[in-house]
C-alpha cells in the first residue's frame, strides 16, 4: 500500500510490531490516532471504528523506543515529529513517568474551507466553535494558507502547541506563505498575540484554542486595533459561549440590566434581564458539529441579542460533500428573514446605477430562457451556483469582463478597483454591489433582474 510520506514518518517512529500491522492495513489513510498504554494492547482509531493492532502488550521498552525518536515534551505534555503535523501526547503517573502515549495523525487537507470562502473574503473576524476532534485546527490551517497565498494578506499564525504549522522552526507548507510565531508555554499565548500586532504589522491574526480570560482580552484588543481575527474555541453552539463567563466577552459579554416598570411592561419581560454589553470581538461564528454540515452566524451581534431575548434565531446551515455542490439552507422554527443591508435597495439598484453612469439601461432585464454571464468579484463561485441552481436559471461564470452581462461583488472591494469600474462603464456592463451578501439577499436580487 502507498502511504503518504508524512504518515510514514509517524508510523516509522512506532514500535516495530505496530509498524508492521499499520503498513499493510487497508485503512491506513483513514487513521486518526494510535494509543500506546503500558500493559495494554496497541489500539488504532480510524474515522469510523477502532481495533487492536496486536496481541502483544505495550512495555516500558516500547514507550521508550517512541520517546527517543520524537521531540521533547512541552509543559502541556505534547511533542511532535519535525516537519510534520503529527502530535504525540503523553500520560504520566504520580512519579511523573510516562506510561501512555496518544499518537495523533496530523494532515494538511486542502479544500476544507470552500464552504466558507465568501466569509473569508468579507474581511470580518471569524470564530470557529467545535468539540475536540472536529477538525478545528485543520480548518484554520487551511484558512491561513488561503488568506496568505490566494488573497495575498499578511497573516501571522500564533502556534502554541505547534499543531498548526508543525513541530519545527521551519513552518509546514500547509500554512502557505503565512508567518508563524511559536509560543513557549500556554500561559504566554495572549502576550504573543499582542506582540504579533505591535511588532509585525499583520492584517490577520490566526490563533487556536482561545480559552482564558487573558486570551479573550487580547482578542478584543486586537479587534479594536482593526486587525482581522480567525480563532477557535471549544463549544457546541453559540448559546454555550454566551453561558461561559470566561469566553462570553468574545461575542460582546453579558450583563444584567434593570428595566423601568414601563419598559418591562412594553417588552413583556421581567425587570431584570440579560443584555449584550459590548460589540463582539468576532463578527461571525461558525459551529462545527460535523465535517459536512456547519452552522453559520453571519451577524453575531443580532444572533446573541435574539438568544438573550429568547427569540428564535435564523440559522444558516451550509452542507458540503464530494458528490454534490455546496448547499446553503436556512433553518428556523418561526418565519424569519435576515435583513443584511445592500448598498442600494433592490428596487432602485438598476435605476440608480444608470443615473450615475448616464446609460440607457433602465429597462434592462434578463429573460428566464437567457443564459446569464456573470463576472463575480470577491464572491464565492460556489455561493453563486447555489443561488442559480435553486432558482433553476442557466448561467455562466466568466473571467472575461468583456463577455459578462453583469458584474456582482462586495462594495468594499469594488470601491478599491477603479480600473474595473472604468472598464465596466466603457463596455456598458451594470455593476451590482452589496455591503454584505447572504443567500436571501442574492436570491431576492436575482429575482428582481430576471
From TrEMBL:
Keywords: ATP-binding, Chloroplast, Nucleotide-binding, Plastid
Pfam families noted in UniProt: PTPase, Spore_III_AA
Example GO molecular function: ATP binding
Residues in AAA+ ATPase domain copies: 122-278
SMART domains for this protein: AAA
Name of the protein in its database record: AAA+ ATPase domain-containing protein
Species name: Cylindrotheca closterium
